[in-house]
Description:
Order of helices and strands: EEEHEEEEEE
Radius of gyration: 18 Å
Strand order of the largest sheet: 4-5-6-9
Low-confidence stretches: 134-139
Strand content: 35-45%
Number of strands: 9
Structural class: mainly beta
Shape: elongated
Amino acid sequence: NDLNGGCEGFIDWNLFLDEYGGPNHVGNMCVAPAICDSRSGQLIYQPSFWYIGHFSRYIKPGARRVLSSTSRDALEVTSYLNPDGSLAIVVMNQSEENISFWLKIAGGSVGPVAATAVEAPARSILTLVADDGDAELPL
């Protein structure tokens, strides 16, 4: 919801931490997108690591947020028009059920120019990219 509310950036203060949630100046347990297991040398990626990737990989610098909405309470959506003309749509399904929905991309006052059926798996986040330079998208 932050991205739809005008957020212009996001910083994850603790990108990597050890298996004890540190080091940090207070000595408390913190969470991070990646945990470095100092005993095994293994890097363990947490779900937030992959979630951040949906935004950082597909929403490009200079992108402009475009209006998007959902008719399903369990789905959250945000959409950005990238400088190259591609449209990045990030959908999160918060429910324990798969949810089918129609992705519709409006063409200004003439109605939908594209519609496709999509299924969001339970407890998932997915990114859809529309790359049609001919589509006229409202800003």
